């Protein structure tokens, strides 16, 4: 029983840093350096526990997994993490006294750390499968070196070989398992981030054709006026023509600006956001799309509404909701956008359509990934919008009735 307990403890010591990393550190700690420092400390603690509570079995049989924290710390954290963890192992071993075991520890590290650090670069640039192979290969190599030196120092015997081979198999299997676990969680995290971005690209590509049209219109108007101005017999309305041309060009410029700012890669910059101003930009961006769908957008937006967050994200989430509202009215209609502030200090954005609406069941599923009732839908728009509003510490409420229309209420914490 005690063997199993010890064994489970060793495994737990590997799991804890991995989960702490993905739950508390990966997204919250922004700088790579701080992340490495924190992870080195966590892996260091895990090494100390591994060495303090090994699995004992048979005569002289001792199993422990210190190689795994050392390996993970060095492979994911790089050179200095590797040096720090190795030094920690040597110092802690020294604390138990200078014996054959101590020399063995030092020798094994001298021969294995350079190899681990040599493979670190190619590990960092590899994909999951190759990473697993490198990690497993290195832990195999480490155990083999340990087995050889210990044998040379103490002498080989059948019993000794048995213990060491069990140790080797044990370590290699556990290394394989934890590298797989770590890499799989990593992939899932990565996928979540990519999903947000890919949904944005899709919306952009859908809006692009409408944009091209929007920009061509003012161009053509201006071109027409320039042609007229070229005519020597028509100087009468000269001023007016020039004025209209300038306005049209300004408008084209504005559309291009808004579009570019929407397409820019997300920078994680939070700032004070003027909601009225952003709503107006969003309406500008979506205007062409709504006209194409014979949808009119009516707005009633209160000035002086400030929130704190990333304006690009806010725009993205509003555009996804507005696009759905427009698409819910195949025969055209009106979308109302209002913005007010509530007594409990929220900014309340209301987006209401006269579209096909949703049943109760459909509302419940809204926001789940890939839930879409459209032929060419992705079912990611709402998920991304919900995520963004949540990241603003806001709330979304949806009221909808089949064939009557839908109302989205977005509440965002107000600042002064
Ligand atoms: P997509 O638009 O690609 O289908 P979304 O995540 O944006 O994906 O929306 C998911 C589904 O929610 C839509 O397919 C639609 O059925 C429903 N939906 C969202 N907004 C509305 C709305 N305003 N009116 C009616 N149905 C809506
Ligand atoms: Mg959508």
From TrEMBL:
Keyword Transmembrane assigned: yes
CDD domains, sorted: HisKA
PROSITE patterns for the chain: HIS_KIN
EC number assigned by the record: 2.7.13.3
Membrane-spanning parts: 7-25, 37-58, 70-95, 101-120, 132-153, 165-185
GO MF annotation, one: kinase activity
Top class in the EC scheme: transferase
Membrane topology qualifier: Multi-pass membrane protein
Reaction catalysis annotation: ATP + protein L-histidine = ADP + protein N-phospho-L-histidine
Compartmental location: Cell membrane
Signal peptide: none
Listed Pfam families: 5TM-5TMR_LYT, HATPase_c, HisKA
Positions of the Histidine kinase domain: 210-416
Keywords for this protein: ATP-binding, Cell membrane, Kinase, Membrane, Nucleotide-binding, Phosphoprotein, Transferase, Transmembrane, Transmembrane helix, Two-component regulatory system
Cross-referenced InterPro entries: HATPase_C_sf, HATPase_dom, His_kinase_dom, HisK_dim/P_dom, HisK_dim/P_sf, Sig_transdc_His_kin-like_C, Sig_transdc_His_kinase_LytS_TM
Protein's UniProt name: histidine kinase
Protein source organism: Neobacillus pocheonensis
